[in-house]
Amino acid sequence: MAVGARTAAVEIGGRWELLVDDYLIDNMTGQIELRLHRPVPREVVLIHDRPWEGNTCGYHTIFKDGDLYRMYYRGWGVDDQTQRSTHPAFVCYAESRDGVHWARPDLGLVEFQGSKENNIILTGPGTHNFVPFKDANPQCPPEARYKAVARGEDQHHQALLAFQSPDGLHWTPVRPEPIITEGAFDSQNLVFWDAVRGEYRCYFRDFRDGVRDIKTSTSEDFLQWSRPQWLAFPNAPKEHLYTNQVQPYSRAPHLFVGFPTRYIPDRGSLTEGLFMSSRDGRVFHRWGEAFIRPGQNRDRWHNRSNYIWLGLVETASELPGAGTELSLYTNERYYQGPGGKTRRYTIRVDGFVSVNATLRGGEAVTKPLIFEGKRLRMNYSTSAAGTIRVEIQDTQGRPISGFALDECPAIYGDQVEGTIAWKAGSDVGGLAGQPIRLRLVLNDADIYAFGFAP
After folding, report:
1. Is residue 1 part of a domain?
2. CATH number, position 438
3. Does residue 337 sit in the same domain as residue 438?
4. Is 265 helix (H, G, I), strand (E, B) or coil?
5. Dihedral sign, CA of 168, 172, 174, 178?
6. Which pLDDT belongs to residue 6?
7. What does the DSSP 8-state code read for residue 238?
């Protein structure tokens, strides 16, 4: 097989690598492609029908904090007849032990219509799009372990304010002045600590030539930020991107994944979630096909009724012996009826994109890779008739003795971290530290991710 022998080697070390793009792939032949996979709709986890909520609840943020799943969202509603707000916007809080069953605790923090028996945690400036996170910066002081950003009001209506909390419930402004002022911020703006690069990253809304788009900025201290830059989407069409939902992927934190919302104003402001990924945080490979379509659910074919909210968490699968899966949360029935809905979707762990082959088969060869470890593991799935075989080659495309294709028994089944073995065993430690290629031969099969383990 002809391969580009001069291709520079990619040092992956012991990282887990997702096949969300062609970054690690040198060539593919046969009936094989990179294929986008789509989440499966599950149950409605919340109906926002409390008096302080309503049909314009939104900008939900979900993350796991120890054994607790936390959800923050805007409580807001619009009267169907007058199209006026039924009450001011609030920041509300819900929690769960499994990511499926959610409760609104009576927190006793904010009064609504004469009672504090509610789950409201914040009123006033910042409530339109309050987006919190738990700060993983090891230098973070306890009183600021939880942080948040939100658009201001009045003179700060086009600026990003910062908040902090010791417990995720009691919030105070970090300072009166905004932290970023170059942007529109009228969307779900977000910040997180990038542990791989040792910096905070912010992704937020701005308009480029009248079209909703996304900017990013970085900071070492959460207060002083670099000049914002536009995200780049090579070979992607220019279209309205309402949200961004960028986050480091937990199993491969060097990789950023995002679930932006495509907004279609000339079709009644319909929305749908997309998938994108990046290896540097600025240049993203954005799939044109929808990641979550409105589908046959009538509640999703309305104005702003098919967002993917911020948060990607592992939850237990309902399938026996299947382990965990990834849960995302979406909205429906926005502007419709007494209260909006939040629905959970699930997808396979690492399962956003795969190298996929038909039964007739195809193969992919990676660029030269330099790894650390002794075992090659893969997240893969085959049909009952499908197979995967793996060959390890030198940089010239020649099979390495003991790891040739005919020395790899047919692999079939479904594993999230399955170890690849050859007739002589699974130990590839003798090849660590030198450039090698992987030749992947598939028949009716998918490979989602791979990595080398000790």
Report:
1. no
2. 2.60.120.260
3. no
4. helix
5. positive
6. 66
7. -
